[in-house]
Automatic annotation (TrEMBL):
Organism of this sequence: Hymenobacter wooponensis
SUPFAM superfamilies assigned: EreA/ChaN-like (SSF159501)
InterPro entries to which the protein is assigned, alphabetical: Emycin_Estase (IPR007815), Hydrolase/PRTase-associated (IPR052036), UCP036794_erythomycin (IPR014622)
Domain of life: Bacteria
Full protein name: Erythromycin esterase family protein
GO biological process: response to antibiotic
Length: 425
């Protein structure tokens, strides 16, 4: 263990990371300031010193694509804050926060010093944006032919009666309703139109990604009302597929930084998720890209404050994070000096006492501090991650607004709120 106070304290981590092309950076909550600022600090060093070329985050592709345009200087927006304040899907605080705004401004400044081919992008990995992704094909894909535009209109017409309510669509599929054919037709039409465009056409790539999101989002919402584990797996497979698409599109020199919750980037094979049939991004990327170098960093805290909500779709709320359970990894690390620390985990993988699973706290966007027992994932920490950043006392994130954003499943106890554990992290 070594101290973690300044950017230079990350030197051992960067040395261990070496020439890896995949850097997966986790967090134990979506509402802790230090998790975001340490990831930003590490990301800046990875970009400047290791040649990483993009950041991909656990957010919606259409929204993050506008931020990508801003950091590359091709947006009409005058600030990152202006872009982020347009995010309207609950919970907006994940990306519409001051910490992300600061990183985006840094990226924009950095990119001004780089040729276009070396500018660092920022992209969304998630699967939720069914309606927005379909609409973006219609508005953003200038080369779309009439077949493609008609396919989009037919898909939106099929979805119209659900009034942008994902839960309503999911429930309707239990009674036999479906828009599978119409949405699949959009992807087929986009891909057919792409045949006449160059392989490096960014507009075509964006349109194909939005069409792919629509296909996987429909499947996700249809599955979420039936199976918690399978909907989780659909989501993480989609995020991994998006990582792979980004790396392929940007070529053999591409290197990617991934920002997601620990539950997504920390290898599921070394947690109790595996016994429920759940896989995740960290597992899949390790399995698929070990030869190219995959380095996973987890984060955790002992206690502090956090931004979360008491129920799905609820208000943005600052909550107390109580002291970690005594049998948890967080409690064990709290007992060790220095208080804030970097742990390189690879050397400890042969130590039986350290690879026994114990609780590792995971705070979701819905959080009840009085029910802490349900917020721990049994984990073999040295194998789940390659390194771990531990901040003993943490503070809540700084949202740009407090409205929380729109959601189709806003009521406590709604079907989607009960079944979509995948959506909580």
């Amino acid at each position: 263990m070594s101290r973690l106070e300044t950017a230079q304290d990350l030197d051992p981590l960067l040395n261990q990371l070496g020439t890896a092309r995949y850097a997966l950076l986790g967090e134990a909550s979506h509402g802790t300031a230090e998790f975001y600022t340490w990831r930003a600090t590490l990301s800046k060093r990875l970009i400047q010193e290791k040649g990483f070329t993009m950041i991909a985050v656990e957010g919606d592709w259409p929204d993050l694509y506008e931020l990508n345009r801003y950091v590359k200087g091709v947006s009409t927006a005058t600030s990152a804050r202006q872009v982020l304040e347009r995010f309207d899907r609950w919970p907006t605080w994940l990306w519409a926060n001051q910490e992300v705004a600061d990183l985006a401004e840094w990226l924009r400044t950095y990119n001004k010093t780089q040729p276009a081919a070396r500018q660092v992008g920022i992209f969304g990995l998630d699967v939720y944006s069914l309606w927005p992704s379909l609409e973006r094909i219609r508005t953003d894909f200038a080369e779309a032919d009439q077949v493609t535009l008609s396919a989009v209109e037919e898909a939106l017409a099929c979805l119209q009666s659900y009034n942008r309510n994902e839960e309503a669509y999911g429930r309707a599929t239990l009674q036999g309703a479906t828009c599978v054919t119409e949405i699949n037709n959009v992807l087929a039409a986009v891909r057919n139109q792409m045949k006449s465009l160059p392989n490096n056409h960014i507009g075509a790539f964006n349109a194909e990604q939005n069409a792919l999101i629509a296909v996987n989002a429909e499947r996700y919402y249809r599955t979420a009302v039936r199976s918690n584990a399978e909907s989780w797996n659909i989501r993480d497979r989609h995020m991994t597929e998006t990582i792979n698409r980004l790396m392929s599109f940007h070529g053999p020199e591409a290197k990617i930084i991934v920002w997601e919750h620990n539950t997504h980037v920390g290898d599921a094979r070394y947690t109790d998720m595996a016994q429920y049939g759940e896989i995740n991004v960290g597992q899949l990327v390790r399995e698929q890209h070990a030869a190219e170098g995959v380095f996973i960093v987890g984060q955790g805290t002992y206690q502090g404050t956090v931004i979360a909500s008491p129920y799905w779709g609820g208000a943005t709320t600052v909550m107390q994070v109580p002291a970690a359970r005594t049998d948890s990894w967080e409690a064990a690390l709290h007992q060790k000096e220095p208080r804030n620390k970097l742990i390189l985990l690879q050397p400890w993988r042969t130590e039986a006492a350290l690879t026994n699973k114990r609780g590792h706290r995971a705070i979701g966007v819905v959080y009840n501090p009085s029910q802490e027992a349900g917020n721990y994932v049994q984990s073999d920490l040295p194998n789940r991650y390659d390194a771990f950043l531990f901040t003993d006392q943490t503070q809540a994130l700084h949202p740009l607004n407090t409205t929380g954003g729109r959601t189709a499943a806003s009521a406590p106890g709604s079907v989607m709120a009960q079944l979509q554990r995948a959506a909580n992290y």
